[in-house]
Amino acid sequence: METFSQRMTAVTCAVALGFLVACSPGTDGLGPPERDATVLPGEDRDLTERLHLPIYDYRTNEAQLRTITQAAGAHVESCMRGLGYDYTHVPETNEHLETDTAFFGPHGEYRRYGLVSLDSAEEYGFGAPEHLDGAEEGTDPPWRIDHGGQTEQDAMDALFGGREDVHTPSGEPVPVHGCFGWAHARVDPHMEIVTKEQAQEGIAGEQPGIAGTAEWIKAVSFDRALDDAEVIDAMGEWVVCMDGAGYPGEDFWLVGSSESAVAVDDTVAAITAVECKEEVGLIDLMVRVETEVQVELITRHETELLERHAQLEEAVENALTSLEEHP
């Protein structure tokens, strides 16, 4: 019988279903699998290795999360149509997968410390690929509802749940958390949806495809790194380096933004910003400090991290099966 990892290799290395996931054979032990040696299209493997943080081994990468989202979207459509609504899932295209991987990295690590890639600086300056410009403004939702008036409102309430008096065209009841919750639970059955009231009480859920503890550790290590004395000194040295290169008074995080004297498309300034980070050793320092924090926290929370990691492997397996059945 083929293992989870073998199936991932067979199905996804050929990008047969239009998405990318890891292609390594993995391991059968209790811990996370060994990191994959396969280079994804667009990935700078040397940069990935340099920026790798321990917590990445316990979370889904962007390609795997995309797979889970695509599979859940297909289930949402099935649920909504079962309730009698004229609903169509509009999946995200794969047109920009390679470009996005080259820009963000498998775990978003290429942008974690701002601009760190000379290749990106040369191509985009402080900006981003054209398809990402204004991506947050006017973006259409990944669905289409061909109804109007009250029926459209009912369809939206059936999609996300929260309203008990929805009268569906089929007469079937709306799932407790709407078709959205039902569909994601089909892919990631260990996810936990909490109500607004529960969230206000501090009760944490588990988002589909996400390892909550891993994301918490990832956030904590970043915050602690920013407070680290060595990092603070290095950022000060970066400012001095930029001053000496002809860019006085620039802020580490704001350079090239609307609050900066440097234009977003200034590739020379962008290259200089990366070179100054290299000169003061800031990139490797941030990785080292974050790694030290994460190792401590991972040890403390290892049991729950491993449990959720196994659940996420199951979720990706479920997603692969769903997408084979609903290509």
Task: Summarize the SSE layout with pairings.
Elements: H1 4-12, H2 45-50, H3 62-82, E1 87-89, H4 97-104, H5 118-124, E2 143-145, H6 149-160, H7 178-187, H8 196-200, H9 212-227, H10 229-244, H11 267-280, H12 282-300, H13 302-325
Antiparallel strand pairs: 1-2
Helix pairs in contact: 1-13, 3-7, 3-13, 5-11, 6-7, 9-12, 10-11, 10-12
Written description of the protein model:
The protein has helices spanning 4-12, 45-50, 62-82, 97-104, 118-124, 149-160, 178-187, 196-200, 212-227, 229-244, 267-280, 282-300, 302-325, and strands at 87-89, 143-145. A two-stranded antiparallel sheet has the order 1-2. The protein contains 13 helices and two strands. With 327 residues, it is an all-alpha fold. The longest helix is centred in the C-terminal third of the chain and has 24 residues, at 302-325. Mean pLDDT is 87; it is low at 1-29. The chain is 51% helix and 2% strand. It has one domain.
The biggest beta sheet, please? 2 strands, antiparallel
Give the rounded overall mean pLDDT. 87
What's the tally of helices? 13
Number of discrete domains: 1
Q: Regarding quaternary structure, how should these chains be classified?
A: single chain
Strand order of the largest sheet: 1-2
Structural class, judged by helices and strands? Answer: mainly alpha
